[in-house]
UniProtKB/TrEMBL annotation:
Identification of the protein by name: Fec operon regulator FecR
Species classification: Bacteria, Pseudomonadati, Planctomycetota, Planctomycetia, Pirellulales
Membrane-crossing segments per the record: 87-108
Keyword terms: Membrane, Transmembrane, Transmembrane helix
InterPro entries: FecR, Ferrdict_sens_TM
Keyword Membrane: yes
Length: 456
């Protein structure tokens, strides 16, 4: 890359900061990936800034016992600081230093938080890829950026990012423990004798083999820390909250905001958030009817969220998306997570029907996809259908897809012998919709509903 093609400092710093906060849209993600692909110095700076961000988060969260680490950050060692220290980072450091000095005696005496995740490429492989589809990027801790990752690739740690609502990634550690991410997600992992993961955003399922004594698997999110000896569970991480549902065994969940701990046993769920009650609740039985809540904001969505007005409901608008498998195609894509308030799994059966309400600017086909899991949380497949659409002269539409209309999504066709032959009897955890038109379709949706006439 020539100097003239590089972003200026302010543009680059702003892009990286918003990436670390999970605020980039699809176009900006592609722009960042392009710069990282083509410039080694930018990759090095990106890794420095990501490390800086993680260490700052840890210092602020763990409190006064780590004042020496704050001093190190403020001193600005050349081997750990970014090339440039953006204004927002300088402000955060100042706030963090003040916060640490003001911490109460009780906080100072809390148990120290888990160490920051670090990957060591020299230690050899710690895990291998056992399944993937959709748009994914793997970044090593030394700035390697790989888009063309494949099944059976051995990894020594790093960060895997799912860039679209139909992304899926399955990783198996050397001891047989498995983790799966789905949808738009960002997971950092390492294993130096103790497995450490950081789920910055997205959905993750895990089946964890018994861990060595004194070395549990530790999973960090923005709002919680999970301590795992060996169990099966699901995690959904958003900016303000982390939801943990346990299928087998027990997971200890520590809320970041106050250090409170809860042991979550099988068939129970907890949500860790500063503004919600932190209590263990039993997961209700399966449900078969569900409605989206786009009006509640952009969390767990992919696309451009548009707030409601006096004349229009809240909308989720499809954005341009280029599939990794077919770079000559431009889709207009949106997606959202599927979950119930009670944490109960959402099952589809032969009578299930999806109905989508929205608006579109051109006459074109509308496709609808679902991602499903088995009862134990393991990834079961992605399926999609071409909708039956009723559209009026103003572009308002109602689209419908019966379960019998769904077939295996082409992106996972290579795994058809491993995946379920149909979604019937499985559990939905994500949906997406797209158009394939020569011009922007203006696809936007206000509601998605799953109905089951045989089980109202």
């Amino acid at each position: 890359m020539s100097d003239s093609d590089k972003p200026d400092d302010d543009v680059w710093d702003d892009l990286v900061e918003r990436h670390l906060r999970g605020e980039l849209n699809q176009r900006e993600q592609e722009q960042l990936a392009g710069w990282l692909d083509s410039d080694a110095s930018l990759r090095e700076d990106f890794v420095r800034q990501a490390t800086w961000d993680t260490e700052l988060t840890e210092v602020v969260r763990s409190g006064g016992d780590r004042q020496s680490e704050m001093a190190t950050l403020l001193a600005g060692k050349d081997d750990m600081q970014p090339r440039r220290t953006p204004a927002i980072m300088r402000a955060l450091l100042a706030v963090a230093a003040t916060t640490i000095l003001a911490l109460s005696y009780a906080l100072v005496n809390q148990e120290a938080a888990p160490e920051t995740i670090a990957t060591d490429q020299s230690s050899g492989s710690v895990a291998r890829i056992t399944g993937l589809s959709g748009s994914l990027i793997w970044t090593g801790d030394r700035g390697e950026l790989v888009r063309d990752i494949r099944v059976s690739t051995e990894l020594a740690g790093g960060t895997i990012e799912g860039l679209s609502p139909d992304s899926w990634f399955e990783l198996q550690f050397n001891d047989g423990s498995e983790v799966t991410t789905s949808g738009a997600s960002m997971l950092t992992f390492s294993d130096d004798g103790q497995k450490r993961l950081r789920l910055r955003e997205g959905r993750m399922s895990a089946d964890v083999a018994p861990q060595p004594v004194g070395k549990p698997m530790v999973i960090q999110t923005r709002s919680a820390t999970l301590t795992v000896l060996g169990t099966s569970f699901d995690v959904e991480a958003e900016l303000p909250a982390t939801a943990v549902s346990v299928r087998e065994g027990t997971v200890r969940v520590t809320r970041t905001s106050d250090g409170k701990e809860i042991d979550v046993s099988a068939n129970h769920r907890v949500v860790a958030a500063a503004d919600q009650d932190f209590e263990r609740r039993q997961i209700a039985g399966v449900i078969r009817n569900w409605e989206s809540r786009i009006d509640q904001g952009p969390d767990e969505t992919f696309g451009k969220w548009i707030a409601a007005t006096e004349t229009s409901p809240a909308l989720l608008k499809a954005v341009a998306f280029v599939p990794e498998q077919n770079p000559n195609v431009v889709l207009y894509l949106l997606g959202l997570g599927v979950r119930s308030d009670e944490g109960a799994p959402i099952e589809v059966n032969e009578d299930s029907r999806f109905e989508i309400h929205g608006k579109i600017d051109v006459q074109t086909e509308i496709y609808f996809g679902i991602q499903v899991a088995y009862a134990n949380g393991d990834f079961a497949g992605k399926f999609r259908a071409k909708c039956i659409v009723r559209r009026d002269n103003s572009g308002n539409f109602v689209a419908r897809a019966d379960l019998s209309d769904f077939g295996l999504d082409p992106s996972v066709a290579a795994y058809k012998d491993k995946l379920a032959p149909s979604p019937e009897g499985l559990f939905v955890n994500g949906v997406w919709s797209f158009t394939h038109s020569e011009t922007p379709s203006g696809l936007r949706i206000s509601e998605v509903a799953l109905a089951n006439p045989g089980n109202p």
